[in-house]
Design brief:
Layout lengths: L13 H12 L17 H4 L7 E3 L4 H14 L3 E4 L11 E5 L7 H13 L13 E5 L5 E2 L5 E2 L21 H27 L7
């Protein structure tokens, strides 16, 4: 989403800017826009069984868990992304099962929520069968002296993705998270298409 973020698009809805970009690449694409947030009470309304794949980039752990659980129940394929804030090294990004992710507070809370409210396995050796993208880099926080540190400053009052006490984010990391997820999804969709295109074995 950073690519079309230009001076000329300031103030424009992101989904409309992205649609324009997609259609400029391929006018035959069909892009359906839904200008809404996924919430606990709207998951079932916004997700449908005819979806080929869901890429989850939600920041709220409760909504994130609800979306993952719904997709699991409805057999909708989903991949989830962990937090990219406070990180600078895209080489530490990993792709694996949600149950195996490390060093990600957001995903840790999602796992806890899934086990408590959605009956996901509490056995640490069992996989969730939910692909996940996360980083093993230790998070960096802004320090009071203008530098960064590995622990959140005690006197920090600001929160969120900001540079005033919260977690900043950098495009080289956020974009890499997305590319990991998209690469996984395209691979799975290609396998499905290949299986559909292969002729059935016949005996003569």
């Amino acid at each position: 989403r950073q690519l079309p973020a230009l001076s000329s698009t300031i103030g424009a809805p992101k989904i409309e800017v992205l649609k324009t970009r997609i259609l400029d690449i391929n006018p035959r694409c069909q892009v359906q826009l839904i200008e809404d947030f996924v919430e606990l009470d709207t998951v079932a309304q916004l997700l449908t069984k005819d979806m080929d794949y869901v890429i989850d980039c939600i920041d709220n752990f409760r909504v994130k868990a609800a979306l993952i659980a719904y997709c699991k129940r409805q057999k909708i394929r989903v991949i989830t992304l962990g937090g990219a804030g406070g990180q600078r090294d895209p080489s530490q990004i990993r792709l694996g099962d949600l149950a195996r992710s490390q060093h990600d507070p957001l995903l840790a809370r999602v796992r806890k929520q899934l086990r408590q409210d959605y009956n996901f396995s509490r056995n640490p050796k069992r996989r969730f069968e939910i692909p996940c993208v996360w980083s093993e880099e230790q998070m960096q926080f802004p320090n009071t002296d203008g530098g960064v540190c590995s622990e959140r400053p005690i006197d920090a009052h600001a929160t969120g993705l900001s540079c005033a006490g919260g977690l900043g984010s950098v495009m080289t990391v956020t974009a890499s998270f997305a590319l990991f997820a998209v690469s996984h999804v395209l691979g799975k969709l290609a396998i499905g298409r290949k299986n559909q295109d292969e002729p059935e074995n016949s005996s003569s």
